[in-house]
Amino acid sequence: MNLSVDYQIALISAGAAILGSIIGAAASLLAVWLGKKIQASGKISLYVKIVHSKSTSHLPWGFYKSRQKSGLYFQVPLWLDVVNTCGISRVIRNFNLYAYKEKTEVASFIQVQRIGDGENAILLGDHESYSLVIPANSTRRFDLEFILHEADLPKNSKTFDQLILTYFDEKDRIHAYYFTTIDSCWVEGSLKMSREWTKLNRRCRYAR
């Protein structure tokens, strides 16, 4: 079938318009995708520092006699600085501390949510939560404290030699970092404190 020149031109014009629309839509989607990739191209960096407890005793980290249970308890007060260089908010969910013996988990610490009661209570974490939202291109500092009671551990499995810090990201992936070595367990007294900040950059494959 022979098509008139005008009809052929009309078909070519329609095809060109459709192709242009497809290319325009693809370019828009690509621009949106690239924009999101650029925004998310930064990273999260974590820094921790051992400090004194905000309780009235102001004790540093160490092993102390428990008034609640038999035996000692291990107290670890920390500052956590989170640096977010992404163009979008990032989530750190369930930031927690674990005791390990070589490559085996011994215990999970208790996250202290508040110290004291009433109007004078000191809230730890992010308003008592250890799940944290870090705004885009920002730095935030949090007061955290972790407690482990000797009485809560099995009698034949109380010793540990490492502390591991972990959290889950917004995609529910776990991130685990070596924090420090413990030379002796359940010996009453404070532990040596460093004035330096520790960047969490030594990842662990064997955390829970």
Give an overview in words.
Helix content is 17%, strand content 39%. Strands 1, 2, 3, 6, 10, 13 and 14 form a 7-stranded antiparallel sheet that branches. A hairpin with a 6-residue loop joins β2 and β3.
**CATH class descriptor of the largest domain:** Mainly Beta
Mean pLDDT: 87
* CATH structural fold name of the largest domain: Immunoglobulin-like
Shape: elongated
Proportion in helices: 10-25%
Radius of gyration: 27 Å
What would you say the CATH architecture of the largest domain is? Answer: Sandwich
Number of domains: 2
How would you characterize the largest beta sheet? Answer: 7 strands, antiparallel
Low-confidence stretches: none
- What structural category arises from helix and sheet content? alpha+beta
Order of helices and strands: HEEEEEEEEEEEEEE
**Terminal Cα separation, in Å?**
72 Å
Strand content: 35-45%
Count of helical regions? 1
What key attributes describe this structure?
208 residues, Immunoglobulin-like, 2 domains, 7-stranded antiparallel sheet, 14 strands, elongated
Task: List the SSEs and their pairings.
Layout: H1 5-39, E1 44-50, E2 62-65, E3 72-84, E4 90-101, E5 104-108, E6 110-111, E7 114-115, E8 122-123, E9 132-134, E10 138-149, E11 162-168, E12 174-181, E13 189-190, E14 198-199
